[in-house]
Amino acid sequence: MNSELTDALVNRYRLAEPVYVSRPRMPSLADYNRYLEKIWASQWLTNDGQFHNEFERKLKGYLGVEHLNLFVNGTIALLVALQSLRINSGEVITTPFTFPATPHVLYWNNIRPVFCDIDKKTFNIDPAKIERLISPDTKAILAVHVYGTPCDVEAIEAIAQKHGLYVIYDAAHAFGVRIGEKSVLEYGDVSALSFHATKLFTSIEGGALVTKSDKQRSRIQFLRNFGIADEETVIGPGINGKMNEFQASFGLLQLETVEEEIESRGRLADLYRRRLGRIGGISFLEDMPGVKHNYAYFPIFVDEGVYGINRDQLCEAMRQCNISPRKYFYPLCSDYPCYSALPSARPGELPVAQRVSRQVLCLPLYGRLDTAIVETVCTIIEHLHSSLS
Ligand code: T4K
Q: pLDDT tens across 379-389, in order?
């Protein structure tokens, strides 16, 4: 891209304040202070406190799930999900198109990740390519509902049943997503949520596991607390994954506004789609029939041949205008030095994931994002295309 075009863009569209890919919906400080006062008075800071238990109960109601444990963050939740199913050796089939936490929890559980290519429409693991990767060492499928788009849960379930495998969903992006009347978290053996500050629903840091039975929920409860059953009994090698009272009270306040957050994001996503739909070389995800989406992210895909410049050049142009989109997820996890020597990590084995990872750019999306900023982002993308064609 020539410097004249960049200068023209910066002169016309550069924003005074930085715009980030995501921002948390902050509750009022007065409301949070009311919780802090109670925490101070009780001197109860963590370990299944009053707000932790209230949050767990209310969250189950909101999500429409029966068995849930809160966690300090989504990564520890995923780590414990595998331990709860006693998966701590062998291989697990997973997607390379995700955040590093997904394959890293496998590594930390002494499991070899086996990367499977993704579907070209949903960007989730492609069920049609899973079976050929199954070996005598395969223990489970670890799928991710990327950007909150549900995986092909029925197809994954059928493969898992046929081969006797567990299914774990990394549902870090899928808070509140439903397929028909059913929460997406009810599929598979266990689903892990993240409530990190960058997520549409946050408890500062935080996460949860949703499971199928009370027996499994109670096993997770022990694993989350060092394996402690009572003051004199440790029943297994657990870890410290507990959520504290400061996180839980933040989460309680978030629950009051999460529907509003999802609705606002939905309206902004519609605006993006209306504006970007007419620009050659730019594509994006559409809503799926029968799915309640959460608009966790707004990824676009840049086809350089049609659009005129590539994803990296578009990203840089936006940065010059004080807008910070993010390349979620580039590079692919299979290209990290710790995994790239694995046979399943060979780029030729993952053609769709390789292409999508080079084309994707997540645009700013959060409930309180000004529509004027969304308009500016779209105008920049439009302006570049028309200047280049
Ligand atoms: N599985 C999947 C599929 C995931 O995407 C994630 C996390 C996990 C598992 C693990 O869950 P956790 O253990 O994190 O609960 C961010 C988040 O740190 C990460 O949670 C998230 N996925 C990932 C997609 O995004 P970064 O490295 O991009 O974050 P950062 O700090 O660059 O933040 C992005 C933007 O958000 C900033 O430019 C500004 C804004 N921001 C950020 C923070 C931290 C705020 O406005 N306020 C804040 O406090 O990873």
A: 999 999 988 87
